[in-house]
Design brief:
4 helices; 11 strands; alpha+beta; 3-stranded antiparallel β-sheet
Length: 249
Amino acid sequence: MANTITTTGFLTRPMSPFHFHSPRCSISPTPNSIKATFAVPRRKAMSLIISTYILSDIGTALAQQPRPFREYVDAFDGYSFNYPSNWIQVRGAGADIFFRDPYILDENISVEVSSPSSSKFKTVQDLGSPEEAGKKVLTQYLTEFMSTRLGVKRESNVLSTSSRVADDGKLYYQVEANIKSYASSNELAVMPQDRVVRLEWDRRYLSVLGVENGQLYELRLQVPENVFSEEENELRQVMASFRANKIIR
């Protein structure tokens, strides 16, 4: 069953047909001259039609192909993952690493690494079961998104939790959540009917948790809910690629 948490912040022009007219004379073309002007060999016409279909099919196939991935490896901090090759890195975003879609700004990926001095992790099971880890992940998200604006309300729920053993032999937890943010259009209005609440954003959050080097690693994916179904296959490939690696110094 989904766990639900609600928080309230106080916190062209069409082209005209060609028309040729001379002010000095006007000559009406004969049917034979029209045929001569626009006559195209039948074999050449068929070739043009076939070429058009081929190019159209190639364009459609290319558009349907998934975007190729690039691998990002952080040997110093000990993790790696694949990300869509057209995403760009954003520096100063507060995470250990941050990439985002250049067109859909709310679609991004980041990695968080726990401090080795704050706590020591032996396995991801130190967080409890996947369900317990899911609650902790959601609470952390809501804490980070807490707003001091009046009239802001957040609705959230854990959609799914799971665990898997990757090809590196390590256990990883996966958490999927949805968070919606609502805000009043006129939070200072005296009458309740004047404080109309509207949806600010609706996002899907995907997290992968792993442990290595005594540290907790979290891969975070964020995507607007209305484009999640289109991007789901690629996002799950990114999740499956995440690895917490042994640091060798």
